[in-house]
Design goal:
Layout lengths: L11 E5 L4 H12 L3 E6 L13 H11 L3 E5 L5 H15 L4 E4 L14 H28 L4 E6 L12 H21 L4 E8 L5 H14 L5 H8 L13 H8 L10 E4 L7
Parallel strand pairs: 1-2, 1-4, 2-3, 4-5, 5-6, 6-7
């Protein structure tokens, strides 16, 4: 049953990378707040640089939510996949009002070891995929006369450089910049674009990240994860649910006058 009095009642929201982790938490919270939610995720794993979640995971999340959520296959690196997802969501739920651009990938290597393949893959998902998903949904909103909201998931990594995480940091810095540019351009069309910069968040992906750091920093498994958690002023790593309040706010009418901003939700790790 739809929550007709929730903060997102009447909204039709797409959450990319919605199968697990932060995306899953946001999708579930949006549904609880009254939105109809399209949980979009990729169908196949792609080796070392696996996006967070799969289509099967998205289907499980949608099933858990009930009638107000459906899963949609989406590869943000392919325009035809983006277009098909938008058309399917609109046919099922009506015009899209809200997009959470959450799909992303991660890799790690010293500057002298970064390959063109690693660079291209991270930027194809985290920057190109985000931009053209945003563009396509914005066009859909404009065509339907919809006053909409777009929330881009950046990272505290986009606020600074890291010796081992140069490509990922650069990709998330680009997300913050694109959020500013898109926010300034699309507000004139009735579309509000903002972002969220999470800190370190305890998801399944962090087990992989921990192993990558262990390789290059000579650490034991679990040691890096423990270190970064202790370094958070709040006293622990973030949890996916810690991000959902900010996402609801930015997707809601309460954020109408917040434009082109990226909100840090990181337990105090970074101030800007």
């Amino acid at each position: 049953m739809t929550n007709e009095t929730g903060r997102l009642a009447g909204k039709v929201a797409v959450v990319t990378g919605g199968g697990v982790g932060i995306g899953r938490a946001i999708a579930e919270r949006f549904a609880a707040e009254g939105a109809r939610v399209a949980i979009a995720d990729i169908e196949l794993h792609v080796g070392t640089f696996t996006p967070e979640g799969t289509f099967a995971a998205a289907q499980a999340v949608a099933s858990g939510i009930g009638d107000n959520a459906r899963a949609y296959a989406l590869d943000v690196t392919k325009q035809e996949s983006i277009d098909a997802m938008i058309a399917a969501v609109a046919a099922d739920f009506g015009p899209i009002t809200t997009l959470v651009n959450n799909a992303a990938v991660f890799n790690l290597a010293p500057i002298e070891e970064i390959t063109r393949e690693q660079y291209r893959f991270v930027f194809s998902v985290n920057v190109e995929g985000l931009l053209f998903t945003l563009q396509s949904v914005a066009r859909h909103m404009i065509d339907n006369g919809t006053r909409g909201a777009i929330v881009n998931m950046a990272s505290q990594a986009g606020r600074r450089g890291e010796a081992l995480v140069g490509v990922y940091c650069a990709s998330k810095a680009a997300v913050i910049s694109l959020t500013q540019s898109a926010g300034l351009g699309l507000i004139k069309k009735g579309i509000n674009v903002n972002g969220i910069a999470p800190g370190v968040v305890d998801t399944d992906m962090w087990d992989t990240v921990d192993g990558m750091f262990a390789k290059y920093e000579g650490l034991q498994p679990g040691e890096k994860k423990k270190q970064v958690g202790l370094a958070v002023p709040y006293g622990r790593m973030g949890r996916p649910n810690d991000l959902t309040g900010a996402a609801v706010f930015l997707a809601s009418d309460d954020a109408d006058y917040v434009v082109a901003q990226t909100l840090n939700v990181d337990g105090g790790n970074w101030m800007s």
